[in-house]
Structure formats: structure tokens, C-alpha cells
Amino acid sequence: MTTHSQSRTGASDPSTPAPAARPAPAARRSRPARGEGQWALGYREPLNANEQSKKDDNPLNVRARIENIYSRRGFASIDGGDLRGRFRWWGLYTQRKPGLDGGKTGALAPEELDDEFFMLRVRSDGALLGAEQLRVLGAISTDFGRDTADLTDRQNVQYHWIRIEDVPTIWQRLEAVGLQTQEACGDSPRGFLGSPVAGVAADEIIDGTSALEEIKRRYIGDPEFSNLPRKFKTALTGHPSQDVAPEINDVSFVGTVHPEHGPGFDLWVGGGLSTNPMLAQKLGVWIPLEDVPDVWEGVISVFRDYGYRRLRSRARLKFLLADWGVERFREVLEEKYLGRTLVDCPSPPVPTANGDHIGVHRQKDGLFYLGVTPTVGRISGTVLSRLGDLVEEYGAAGVRLTAYQKLVVLGVEEERVEGLVAALERIGLSTRPSNWRRSTMACTGIEFCKLAIVDTKDRAVALVSELERRIPDLDTPITVNVNGCPNACARTQVADIGLKGQLVLDDDGNQVEGFQVHLGGGLGLQPGLGKKLRAHKVTSAALDDYVTNVVTGYLDERHDGESFASWVAR
Ligand code: SF4
Questions:
Q1: Where would I find the Nitrite/sulphite reductase 4Fe-4S domain in this sequence (predicted)?
Q2: At what angle do helices 131-144 and 167-176 cross, to 10 degrees?
């Protein structure tokens, strides 16, 4: 590949320290042995301000203060520790003060970045959203969020411009239709990813819906699991396309078939991106559907008790896995938390089909599901409400969100499919998108995110539009993931073209918004981390040309059937 002038490129009680884990084998343990704040090794005293805040008061308790004090007295009354810490456990982040450019982010104090408005995240946990739920989600946006609503790659709905005064009313409306913001953010079990076609796909291995519902019922809001070392991401799918990005979650249950026992789930642990990307490690086991919640509890308990709490930059489960290795992890899980051994089973094969579910597909019951794309997850309250109306009007079962900032309308009768396809198109949701629109994602970016260095959503929308004009007949999906900073919320390292926002130099030597490029990463069909090519830095203004050049090079040079990632790896 050449591009213009550049080169190729259980059970334990957290208050009672458990017995120490056996030390990891020396060969795997390169860093000196010192406490990392693991509760299970007796480190109960907080080693940093975040740990202190969680110890001082369980973050779930902040809801009462929001309802009884802050929403009545206004933004100025909010305690700083609650505002920048505990609010997250209820899905609330302050949004970025307008007008701050990316270069200023690191130099300002937290209070200088905070706007008086909030981002609010609603978790869907892979559940089916009916017409009424969609209309409630839409009305909250139009009534309280200036008609903003983004679909995230974790199947959440994200609002902006929320005022603290309105939060209790929003909770009442959401909870009246079975939705919640609890633990949508924070050091907690965040929103789950579930297969958007669970229970309906003709080629499904196993329907995991009941397991996700049970995990949610038992553990979300349970104080036993509301003080984790950091966030904990869950994914579960019984679909052979592995449609929930299981490679990059802390814990994933992935459909598999045991030769004797039949369908069940393999267990993958320790995936995550950000600044130290790691793909999940596969245990190679078989877990029956009814055991999934107990095993989930075991895995999150290992994380809670043995996870590193000294440095937040090392507090995700992936760092424990990197030090322990998967065999040691399995041993601790089985011996200390499950009290039994798991059944061995080869891990499921790499998928052979794309798992974004875009287009019209027949269900196993003869009805159809329609996978549709907004552009880079950006919709609105108006569209959500209209979507609810269409679900009712066309007699569909409901809508599930996807792990790719898209959505799927399920349970449509055959004779109503074409009418619904046209109606969805009229509100900007296409079943037949270009490959550019289908495969581009963007994080929140500088418009609202305090950590952002560059604009992402608007930039990605413009990029898609320009690429559709320049290369309208692209015949294969090429994933483009646009991120506003190194945190990789839109998965920088697992895209064909992953873009990490940073300041770069333009031709005149000025610092301007731009991106570090990672090439050739992927999930599903060809999982792997992309190459970070130091020479591939591009200004935001030159992004259209950069992507055009790279993709044109691929299209000119590819062999029959060769993927973008394989071409990059040549
Ligand atoms: Fe914000 Fe960075 Fe995440 Fe984008 S990647 S949403 S800029 S933290």
C-alpha cells in the first residue's frame, strides 16, 4: 500500500480482604511487585482521589441529593465531588463549555471546562424498545435536550443540553417505561451490549436475552458492584457474526456449540482500547445459558477484588489479564468465585459475515428485520418519536440499537417491508446506505466532550458526504472511526481507518486540528489492532483527500477478494 508521499504502510465481601492470590509467573511479570491497590491483597485504603471519593460515599447515593437538593437549588449548589465524580453513576457528565478550542483542554482547571448543562446517557442493554419507549425517549430530547440524541456504539441514547432542574422529571419519564440511566457511566457495570437480532435471527446459535435481563435485574444498582476499579463493559451474543464487539469488552459471552452439550457461550475477558489497546482473551469454555449470570458475577468480582486501583491508567481488567495470563485468571475465577471448573470447549470460529445487520433480512418466524443507518449515530428526539410512530403504524415489534451506532427494526410483516423502508428513508434512516455511511462512526468530540481535542461528528458527516461524491461505487465496507482524543470511544484501533484526534502541524507550521491515523484494524471478520503509522498524521482540513488517496490505493492494488486490512498488512 502506498499513499501519496507516505510509506506503506462471589462471592467475597469487599469489606473483608480475601486471601492473597498466588503471584503471577515471573516470566509474565516484568514490573516490580508492589501494591496496586488490590482489595484482595489488603489494600483497603484509597490510593487516589477517585478511590477516596467512592469510599467516602457510595456514588449511587448521589441520586437523592440530585432529587432533593441540586435540582431544586440549581447548578451552583452542586458539590464539586458529586459534579465531577458521583454524577456519572447516574449517567450524567457536565458538557464542555462552548468556544474552547482543543488546544486549551489540558491547560484549564476542571471548573473552567464545565458548562452548566449535562450530557445524559440512557442505557438500553440490548433490549427491544417499543413504540411508547421510543416516543418517551424522543420527547425527553425535544422537551429538555434541544432535540439532541446520539446513538452510541454501546447501545445507549445520549442527550445533551440537560439542566439539573429537569433530571428528576426525566428519570420519572424513563422509569415509567422501564428505562434507566443508573450506572450508565462511572466505575460500574456500564450498559450491556446484546445482539440486536437475539431471538429472531434465522442463523442464531443461542438466544442470550434472558441472561442479560437476569444480570441487569440482579446486579445493576447493587452496591456490591458499584465501586469497581474502573468501568466494566459487558457484551453477550448468540449470533455467529459476533455482533457485539466482544473483542473489546471486559467480559463477553460469545455463542458457541459444544459437540455433546449443544449451544452455550464461550467466555472472553480483558478487552479494551484507549491508550493501551488489548483484545479480549478467550477462555475456550462452554457455559450454559442459565449459568451466565453467575459466571458474570464471578468475573466482575475478580475485577472488583483484584483489579488495580492505584493508577486509573492501569485500572481496567485488561491490565490484570496482561499480568496474570488467561490460565491464572480462569484458575482464580473457578477456585475462588465459582467453586467449580468450567467445561472446556474450543472457542467459536471467526465470523464469516458482517455483523452490522444493515438491510432487510428474513427472521426465523417468517417476519423481517430492517437494519438502518443514521449517519455516525446522530439522530434527534424528533426522529426517535417518529420512529416510535412508525413502529406502531407498521405493526413492528420494536427497535434494538447496535454496537455500531445503528438500529434495527424487528418483527415486520413481509407485505409491509417496502412501505416501512420508504418511511424510514424519509426520516433519514436508510436500509440501503452507501458503504461509507454504513461503516463510519464518530465519538462525541469537541462539540460536547471536555476531553476532546478536535471536532468529530460534524467532521465525519462531511467526510461521508464527500466520499459518497468522490467514490460513490465503493463495493466493500471500509470502516472509518473518528475519535476526538486518545480515549478511543469510537474505537480508533479496530477500524480499517482509525482516526485519533490531536493537534498537528499544517503546511505553514501552525498547530491545527487533525488526526493520527491507525490503519488495518478490525473486529469480527478480521479482528486485530491497526498499525499506528507515525508518518500518517493529517489535518482535519485534509482528511477527505487523505482517505480518498488511501482507499484509491487499495482499490487499485488489491487482489481478488483481498480485504483492506490484508492489503495494509502486505
Ligand atoms: Fe471524548 Fe475522547 Fe471519548 Fe471522543 S474519544 S468522546 S473526545 S473522551
A1: 185-339, 437-570
A2: 170
Q: Is the CB of 434 under 6 A from ligand 1?
A: no
Question: How many residues can be counted in the chain?
Answer: 570
CB 517 within 8 A of CB 549: no
Residue type, 432: R
Closest to 307 in 3D by CA, of 327, 323, 295:
323
DSSP E strands, 308-425: 343-344, 359-362, 368-372, 378-379, 398-401, 407-412
**Which of 98-112, 438-452, 553-567 is predicted least confidently?**
98-112
DSSP letter assigned to residue 272? B
Neighbours of 539 (CB within 10 A): 20
Name the closest-CA residue to atom 2, ligand 1: 485
Mean pLDDT of the chain: 93
Tell which phi-psi region holds residue 313, choosing left (phi > 0), alpha (psi between -120 and 50) or beta.
alpha
State if residue 451 touches ligand 1 by the CB under 6 angstroms criterion.
yes
The type of residue at 401 is L
ipTM over 0.95? The verdict is: yes
Helix, strand or coil, per DSSP, at residue 530 = coil
Question: Residue 514 Cα, ligand 1 centroid: separation in angstroms?
Answer: 14
CA distance 304 to 333: 12
Give the tens place of pLDDT for each residue, 197-229.
999 999 999 999 999 999 999 999 999 999 999
pLDDT in tens, 384-408: 999 999 999 999 999 999 999 999 9
> How many Cα atoms sit within 13 Å of 514 on the Cβ side?
18
- Give the chain's end-to-end CA distance (angstroms, integer): 7
Element (H, E) at 512: strand 511-519
Q: Is the CB of 489 under 6 A from ligand 1?
A: yes
Give CA separation, 299 vs 12, 69, 279, in Å.
12, 37, 17
Q: Is the CB of 445 under 6 A from ligand 1?
A: yes
Are 420 and 389 in contact, with CB atoms under 8 Å apart?
no
Helices (H) and strands (E) in the chain, counts: 17, 21
Cross-strand partners of 430: 373
Paired strand residues for 216: none
User: Which residue among 93, 248, 444, 459 is best mutated to probe the pocket of ligand 1, counting the most ligand atoms within 8 A of its Cβ?
Assistant: 444
Which grid cell sits at 148?
Answer: 439532541
Tell me, using a 6 A CB cutoff, whether residue 452 lines ligand 1.
yes
CB 460 within 8 A of CB 483: no
Q: Name every residue whose Cβ is closer than 8 Å to that of residue 203 and which is 6 or more positions away in sequence.
A: 239, 240
Ligand 1 atom closest to residue 444's alpha carbon, by position in its atom list: 6
Q: Which of 547, 570, 567 is nearest to 556 (CA)?
A: 567
